Amino acid sequence: MRIAILALLGFVAGCSTTHTATGPATGPSSGLQQAYQACQTSYDNHTLKTRAERARCINAAENQFASEFPDRELLRRQQGLRLSLAMQVDQGKISQATADAAYKRELTRLQAASAAHG
Q1: pTM
Q2: Signal peptide position in this chain (predicted)?
Q3: What is the DSSP secondary structure assignment for residue 17, as one 8-state letter?
Q4: Is the pLDDT of residue 31 over 70?
Q5: DSSP labels for 22-83?
Q6: Which of 67, 74, 81, 58 is CA-nearest to residue 29?
Q7: Taking a C-beta distance cutoff of 8 angstroms, is the pair 40, 17 a contact?
Q8: How far is Cα 72 from Cα 69, in angstroms, rounded to an integer?
Q9: How many other C-beta atoms are found inside a 10 Å radius of the C-beta of residue 2?
Q10: How far apart, in whole angstroms, are the C-alpha atoms of residue 52 and residue 110?
């Protein structure tokens, strides 16, 4: 699982609090990767106009491939975190860099709590 965490956090840092770290150790399937990329492409070409729209797209993609995520509660919390931070950036309350740092910090905390209970 650590491999997936690092790979996906790398994508998160460059793409505004987007991806998850709750997937399998081998990383996301090609289908999920394509869904993530479709969301990013839509955001890049302004079909998705806000970070919140992009976060909702990514959350929907993850829900479509929910079987890839062993801890559904962690996934739900991570998706809520993603959307909350995206909305704060859209509203100008925090910067994207602040959101990325908060996402990484809180996701690490959520994963530790999940591991302690699982």
Answers
A1: 0.79
A2: 1-21
A3: S
A4: yes
A5: -S-TT---HHHHHHHHHHHHHHHTTSS-SHHHHHHHHHHHHHHTGGG-S-HHHHHHHHHHHH
A6: 67
A7: no
A8: 6
A9: 9
A10: 21
Tokens 């990329």 belong to residue? 37
Contact 23, 69 (CB under 8 A): yes
Q: What is the DSSP string of 72-103?
A: HHHHHHHHHHHHHHHHHHHTTSS-HHHHHHHH
The 10s digit of each residue's pLDDT in 48-98 is 999 999 999 999 999 999 999 999 999 999 999 999 999 999 999 999 999
**In what helix (H) or strand (E) does residue 12 lie, and over which residues does it extend?**
helix 2-14
- Look up residue 4 and give its two tokens: 């997936």
Tokens of 24: 């399998």
Q: What does the radius of gyration of the chain's CA atoms come to, in whole angstroms?
A: 13
Cα–Cα distance measured from residue 118 to residue 116, given in angstroms and rounded to the nearest whole number:
6
Q: How far apart are the first and last CA of the chain?
A: 14
Which amino acid would we find at residue 29? S
